[in-house]
Input
Amino acid sequence: MSDNSYVLVINCGSSSLKFSLIAPLTGEAIIDGLAERLMTDSAEITFKHYLITVSQEDTKEKEVEQFILKTPFDHKTAIEQLVETLTRKQLIDKISAIGHRVVHGGEQYSQPTLITPEVKNTITELSKLAPLHNPANLIGIEAAQHAFINLPQVAIFDTAFHQTMPEKAYMYALPYSLYQQNSVRKYGFHGTSHYFVSQMAAKKINKPIVQCNFISAHLGNGCSVTAVKNGESVDSSMGFTPLEGVMMGTRSGSIDPGIIFYLVEQLNYTLDEVNQLLNKKSGLLGLSQLSNDCRTLEQAAIESGDSDKSRLAKLALTVFCYQIAKSIASFSASLTSLDALIFTGGIGENSSFIREQIITHLSLLNFQLDPTLNQSTKLGKSGNICCDNSRLCLIIPTNEEWVIAEQAFSHIQQLKQENPYVS
Ligand code: ADP
Output
């Protein structure tokens, strides 16, 4: 691989822009960071530059230079500052492609896709299915195209991995015309993460991915569970939107749709208020009345004795774990064998408390926790946390940026092979 084969990965939200300059074959980041609170007076960008030093014992160590710039205003100025920084650090010429995380690819995209004007139009059309996400992703694409005129830009879709789901998994029991004419079906999200941890788990158990069957639980601020059969997604808990499925940090997950009629007709909620309630004020935050952050709730559950604060924190965590365990158990219907359960995401990778509660509900599926392994496997460590005679439960730290970099890079290489005149 030549020295200019790094991929700049961009994940653009409505008021934030995450970036990472990554070596696609190893996943090593040279520089990454986050522009946040964009479009407000407190907008800022944090950069982390990883300087590799070789110590006396010839071991590689990473020194991090961190700095914050207070002058971005919007996504465009944030990208301009990123370009300035990459130029100053003499990294700008090392970039061979830009990889964009795009949330919704509908049924149109199941593979990494070079961003052309037609592709941008389709992503814009798909905004009706993902109004909170695709418009923000497009802002990032526009800003990057403006700043990196000569570089190929590739979209990696969060829904793509789930396009292998069979009809029986993605159809809702609604009039068929809503699917045919209005694209109402299950899409599934967090695809890049479920794909990555499945690949890593296959390597861990030393089995070709096409023979692997997993249930993968991505537990972060957003949470989803996916059944992976022979390396492909066959069902997932998130649906038409990321609101369906298990409860999350601030999202309710699945509830009786009748509650929405009750809120609107009897309690006079507007549709916008219902939307805010289900997406921003429910989940761990709504039930606990305290926080969407799992660490805060675990602390409150231990510290506050018999207080209301402690009771509601415990309740939120208990419902959370039960819902996830039920979702995992339900996906045994999608598989004929199971090599491992996988936990990933901030909670899945780090919370031994949550993992223990979930696994306690899964004894019928022959999961038996090893408490010592469960305690020690966190903070970037991977491995099995169950006993010898149990099914495997693997902790695998996710790395969506690496997938985006690797897939964008491979896609460009493939296009160049097909057409050597592509620059
Ligand atoms: P996002 O979906 O925004 O990427 P993350 O995957 O970073 O979110 O997950 C955030 C969640 O992970 C938060 O609820 C946070 O409390 C939880 N988390 C992170 N570290 C720990 C830890 N050591 N123990 C328990 N929960 C943790």
Summary: The radius of gyration is 22 Å. Residues 58 and 132 are 48 Å apart (CA to CA). Residues 220-222, 249, 293-295, 345-347, 350-351 surround adenosine-5'-diphosphate (CB under 6 Å).
